[in-house]
Amino acid sequence: MERTNQLNQLVGFFYLNGQITRAFHGRMAMNFILEMIIMANRNQLLTLITGADKGIGFETATKLGEAGQHVLLGARNAEKGQRAVDRLRSQGFVVDLVVVDVTDKQGIDQAATKIDDEFGHLDILINNAGIALDNHEKASKLSTAIMRKEFDVNFFGLIDVIQAFLPLLQKAKSAKIINLSSNMGSLGLATDPQSQFYNVNSLGYQASKAAVNFATICFAKELAGTNVTVNSVNPGWTATGFGGRNLNEPTPAGMQTPAEGAEQIVKLATDSKNVMTGTFTESGGTLPW
Ligand SMILES: NC(=O)c1ccc[n+]([C@@H]2O[C@H](COP(=O)([O-])OP(=O)(O)OC[C@H]3O[C@@H](n4cnc5c(N)ncnc54)[C@H](OP(=O)(O)O)[C@@H]3O)[C@@H](O)[C@H]2O)c1
After folding, report:
1. Residue ranges per structural domain of the chain
2. 260 φ/ψ sector (left φ>0, alpha ψ -120 to 50, else beta)
3. Tens digit of pLDDT for each residue in 154-167?
């Protein structure tokens, strides 16, 4: 604040002093603007979203950009990621690309080192990258090769990302890990005969998201009382290309827009109190584990 006052006085002085040459005046004005930008950036939350080149991740990046956060847009494909970054920058948001495949541990570690070198911390980590490869095959028929691929991205990838970025989150004033789970990963809903998920049968995807919830529980317990909160979010059934859905097909009744899917993630990411930890929520409230 004191620095702002000093700068204001300086600008006022040069404004009043008609003797100053136009070039010098212009340079001072530019310096003043740069100082203002640097000061604003210091207060800007730094948020990494994995798998954010499309779908719910991209929508979350859009909303958090709008909210004034500095978004590090994660994408495994550099070209697709850059296109997404360009779209967001054209709207005036502060966005940078982080090329990261969550199944590539070395690449994750390199990305964490680069972000640490450049920014020295991370405020929010949103583990959004996910896949669903099983197609409601019976548990007795689904190949373990498919399940392993789902676990590699949805669970082991998420753990590798958390482990690599936790030291950066611990350097922030107040930090968050938000894990994208699913109502399909809820053991409570899967075993409740009244639930619409009782008859759902996607062992690989469901087990991988139940494992994500367990990661949330374990990390939340380990980090209780520290500056880092850890929560699971269910975006709900959302009209993205997830699981190979054709985006040109009409949206089925009851399917949400990506903006609706991003709602609860954005709510947690913009919650300035940041006291909630170890929860599993959606925009409608709390879900059973
Ligand atoms: N849509 C739903 O109905 C729904 C419901 C419940 C939960 N979810 C969860 O919400 C999250 C986002 O889903 P979505 O609907 O937005 O799906 P989506 O449109 O298919 O987006 C998934 C994102 O994950 C990325 N990804 C996949 N494998 C990756 C890897 N190995 N490394 C890094 N990124 C990878 C994709 O990148 P590419 O563009 O390169 O493929 C894409 O950016 C997922 O975790 C999903 O399980 C979705």
Report:
1. 1-43, 45-286
2. alpha
3. 999 999 999 999 99
